[in-house]
Design a protein that fits this description.
The protein is α/β, with parallel strands linked by helices and 285 residues long. It has seven helices and twelve strands. The strands form four sheets. It has a five-stranded parallel β-sheet with strand order 3-10-4-5-6, covered by helices on one side. Strands 7-8-9 form a three-stranded antiparallel β-sheet, with no helix packed on it. α1 packs parallel to α2. The relative contact order is 0.14.
Length: 285
Amino acid sequence: AAGEFQYPRDKRDMIKTEDGFIPDPNSMFFGANLCLHNSKVRSWKELPGDEYVVVGGYESGMDAAINLAQAGKKCKVLASTPCWNLRTGDPSSELAPYTSDRLRTVLSEGFSGPNPELVAPIRVVSVEKAKGGVGYNIAAQWKEVDDELALASRAWGNNIPTDTEPGEKDSFLVLQTEHPPILCTGFKGSVAAAAGHLFDFPDPNKPMKGCVGDGPLLTRNDESTKIPGIFLVGPTVSHGELVFCFVYKFRQRFAVVANAICEGLGMDTAAAVAESRRTDMYLDN
């Protein structure tokens, strides 16, 4: 019960090897600590200057871009996926309708402020202080364009064009900015940050799918596969390709956990489980 937003992903993690501690290549990019995490912004309007680079997309990145535009500041969003066009039918993997509506407003021709620039698919690999100590250099690497995603976006009628033509896969784009880039790369989540020793985790080399990264490996009752008796509830719960990011999804697993604990104590749970199923609050299939 440590909260999911107490641990921003704003620096490279270190791992221990036989030769000592080295940066974890699967964590944040080099120079992430030079950026300003979006959770630490108290007022978008009071940020110094009038131009920013946003690193990361989805809800955090789009919210930053929208707020910067509404504050009269130019911004360029560097996102690994054109999330503004993504439609999967699963709300865990696409923008909320409210966010999409706000984004369309600041991208419209009639918007009074500067329109955000959206750049994808591209992944930032480093941020460095510029020579002379004034400003920052951002190096980003182009990813392969997903043609199926583009076709699906047009089919859904949600084709918001990017502002920069994608470069060749693995080529680099270098940007300069006067102010620290705004880091919108989400949070580690309390499990990985504070209770990682109680759980086993998936292969870190595989693409992450969860809202706060890949959750730990769990039994069908959301119990740790490493230490019996340790259960998990919340947005880091996942089973295969199913991700329970949102509260209306992961709350349907509460009764599953309660049932497992009560059965372990020898209690009769039949009536409680039946009532939970009746109200669609027992998701176990």
